[in-house]
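Practice record 12: protein with magnesium ion.
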Amino acid sequence: MNIEDKILAGDKIACARLISMLENNEKEAEEILKKLYEKTGNAYVIGVTGSPGAGKSTLTDKMAKKLREKGFKIGILAIDPTSPFTGGAILGDRIRMTDLILDEGVFIRSMGTRGNLGGLSKATSSAIKVLDIFGCDYIFIETVGVGQSEIDIVKMADTVVMVLTPNMGDDIQAIKAGTMEIADVFAINKSDLDGADKTKFEIEMNLDLNENTDFRPKVIKVSALKNKDIDILLDAVLEHKDYQMRTGNFEKRRIDNVKQEVLDLVKENLINLIMKKAVENDLLNKLAKEVYARKKDPYTAKEELINLLLN
Ligand SMILES: Nc1nc2c(ncn2[C@@H]2O[C@H](COP(=O)(O)OP(=O)(O)OP(=O)(O)O)[C@@H](O)[C@H]2O)c(=O)[nH]1
Ligand SMILES: [Mg+2]
């Protein structure tokens, strides 16, 4: 059997292999995705984001288990830009889902920056496609932190769950400042500890200021550790899913994402083409020296490089 058929037959190893090939930017892998692309589009993607240690992995594990009980097939991608590890080296500290790993209906993988030649964002969007083809009904993408690269990644999700914890103090200010608007659902995790009501109150107050949006995110107190109120959180996710389906927002969001993806691919390809030609002719070196010596300006240099492609 070739790798395509294996993946369609539910072979996890083949799935992992194709993801690795995509991470290595292998042309053959892209060809496989081209052939199988029409089989994507069935999975619903849930982004889980929040500060380090907020309980994202524990929570993802509990949500995945609930969905497994209903017979759904699940994919989990743990994205960690600070981690050098990728693929098989996952099962360390950042993921606490050991028993799910043995479940044939669950695919788990962590993805770090190293070895991802085309960048983490591209690798993530490729991996989502592979898991979709593999037959996952729900795909979780866990991202640490709130930096721009994580935001770009979490935007690939259909629903974003922002995980907060009680007594975050200044952290909550940071969240307000930058990233509140990417959340579709807020999960106040660790609500077995004191202070969850206060955090919920603060988030609700902030949402009050934002009444001009047509969807108001739910704020749900949960405890991943105690497996408490996970159903309520999942209901809030599904409610957001229904809202999007009803209003056409789902389609709009996905089309916006495709636009971004295609443009990113074009950018990458053009740069590669220009670099290849510029290196062949030693042109980049020559131009850089000329710009340095003030014989030329950077803008003219840019035009000359672009002209390489056009001619
Ligand atoms: N008290 C309490 N502790 C929790 C809860 N959920 C998770 N934890 C603990 O918080 C710690 C971090 O949990 P993780 O699930 O690894 O958190 P994370 O956000 O995935 O962490 P990183 O991936 O490292 O950013 C662990 O020690 C968990 O046991 C909870 O609901 N209540
Ligand atoms: Mg984690």
